[in-house]
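User: what does the whole thing look like in 3D?
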Amino acid sequence: MKKEIFYTLCSKVFDCLNSDEQLTLFLEGENSQYFRFNDSKLRQSGIIEDFNLTLSLYNKNKCLQSMTTISADLDSSVRKVIKEIDILRLSLNATPPSDHIVFPDKFGSVEVNALGNLPERDNILDSLMGIIDKNTLTGVWSSGKIFRGCCASNGTKHWFEKDSFLFDFSLIDRNENMVKILYPHSNWNESEFHKVFTDASSQLSLMDKPRIELKPGKYRTWFEPCAVADFIDMFSWNGVSESSIRKGSSCFIKMRNEKKKLSPLFSLDESFTDLTTAPFNTRGEVSSIVSIIKNGVFENALINSKTANEYNLESNYAEDENSWGMGEYLRSPSIHGGSLHDNDKLKALDTGLFMSNIHYLNWSDNLGGRITGLTRYVCYWVENGEMIAPIKTMRFDDSFYNFLGDNLEAVGEKVLARPVIDTYDGRNPGETNCPGILVNDFELTL
Amino acid sequence: MGDERNFAGSSFVNLTDFGSLQYGSELMNIVFDPTIDNQLATYAFDDAGMPASKEHLIKDGILVRGLGGIESQVRSGVNGVSNLRASSWNRIPIDRMANINLSPGLSTRDEMIGSVKRGVYMESNRSWSIDDYRNKFQFGCEYGRMIEDGQLTKVVKNPNYRGITNPFWEKFTYGGRSRHI
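Assistant: Here's the predicted 3D structure for the full assembly of 627 residues, as structure tokens:
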């Protein structure tokens, strides 16, 4: 899909609106190559060209949405979208007005063309198979362009286009020890991937020791950035949303209402400054940096325009509710790095747990900030700064008011950009910027 | 088959366990039934075109069959079910669960609660977490009450339960009667 085709489509559709109507058109698209591997053998492959358009038709303070697919065939796409508008009009007449619905303000134009150097489709498989020579790899390669676009009938006009690939894989040995690798990039370099694979293989061989079983209890723990990113993901679910705070379901209510604080070492922003994902939302509103937690103090929730209208607040242009019922979620979270150098993390841990990844998190007490989940992948016991042995899977259940509060001892200097790996409705361009953290008394339960 | 080891994970069950693994107590009967009316995953054929039928996955506590469509059955040599399904028109079909039900038992609610000296009654799961081999689980519920001397007493806040799959199902001692809501 070319930007010019999308803009022309929008312009032609806007010409068909009645005088009392306004419209936003939001495009999510991808042009992707997928390979799925098991035991280092190709299991499935596929090419996806998919362009979904969300229409939001407004008539004063009424609004209805629908979604359709479009293609680079301009005429047929325009016809299809106009037909969708005709259907929406019929329903909009019967829809009651809402004071919380307003058409978005004009936001000018933002254009991001994050072009890279992706491998040729015909060569990807040969390049990968030449390197993943041992029967240890299970995972998915995805590559190609990701598109986002948004035009509104008041003149807002945005485009985001990104070349990227992600090789999301595990290496698994005969004892089912596993190493997880997320290798994202915009520029393919075969020798660099060879090094990533070799390093992961070396890491896996270090895990080839009898696993030790820990007892439930409190442990000093180092979390690698990928594990921390999983904790941060939880804040999008009954967390940073102003609406969820107002409705009494947010884990940050204690910070808002009781002025409870986290550690001064912890700061969280929503930031689009590096433009790794589209800085505009589905309404075409452009977000600036939002400081959510600064040195342990809760500063701002994410507020979309609907919530702003409902509670008479100022919007920071967070996302509308999506088809999953989630709104005001983190699209580009960033945790501030600290002072602990990466080479010193095991020494600083001294004796305790090293956790590369965590698995299947959920709230066990949302308002109390308690999260349960499990250890997974490279998790091992450390004594005197030296790896002793991998551990058997353990469940944890602890509150972030503890492990990001008084129990947070240090934050890593190195900040990792962990890509979004969800592909439920297509590939996503976002990432979470996260350092590792050193925590005291982290609670393992089973 | 291990296809999901990089994502959802694997299973403590091995292919050789089908037909012999004592998964839980003899009261435990788990049924795959896409033919049942008015459930969320009711269909006549899966996306591989295989006719759907009711099958026991666990019968009298023994694991007898896996969730695997025609492709997985050919690859594994193990009996499966018709569950090769795509989540949308633009997604390839994979093995997905359909209507999976625990068969009712013979006990009334009052009989079951009356048999408990001290325990917790829980309703409506709202939080789920399982490990990558489906061993250690934890679930949270919306509502709970203490059971004391066979009676429901005070409401408890944030009830959660955690356990390990086999030992948990081995302790399955009463099954509630069928109820129509």
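In plain terms: The mean pLDDT of chain A is 95. The two ends of chain A are 50 Å apart (CA to CA).
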